[in-house]
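hey can u check if this looks right to u? its 151 residues, i copy pasted from the old doc so theres a chance i mangled smth
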Amino acid sequence: MAQTLNINGTPHAVDVDDDTPLLWVLRDVLGMTGTKFGCGMALCGACTVQMNGTPIRACVMPVSALVGASITTIEAIGETPAGQKIQAAWRDLEVVQCGYCQSGQIMSASALLASNPNPSDSDIDNAMAGNICRCGTYVRIRAAIKQAASA
């Protein structure tokens, strides 16, 4: 069924089944491969994007639930003030190791910073709890969020 999704400020007409997960629309239909497939069950956070500024898991979110919403992906997060700060801190502190989970990590961290410009350790833990990093860069992730908050 044809639907129009607002992704990164641009309307995209997509002709997919209503229950098609956003992840596959982004990657396979629109060619936006920055959002990664991890577990397919909303457990790892690799597929995190933002819907109206709130982090969601694209692997389980059907496109029918997104009509009328504003979706932001890793491709455009650097255009937001919080995204710019987070991406700069990620580079400065060399957060990335293998990098696979990082688009999801950045999407969750930038949503946190946009809603809470001075997060506590507890706030960071709560916001980032659903994002898994197999390389264990959690200490650098926390430091980068704190650096971005103080920028």
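DSSP finds five helices and five strands in the chain.
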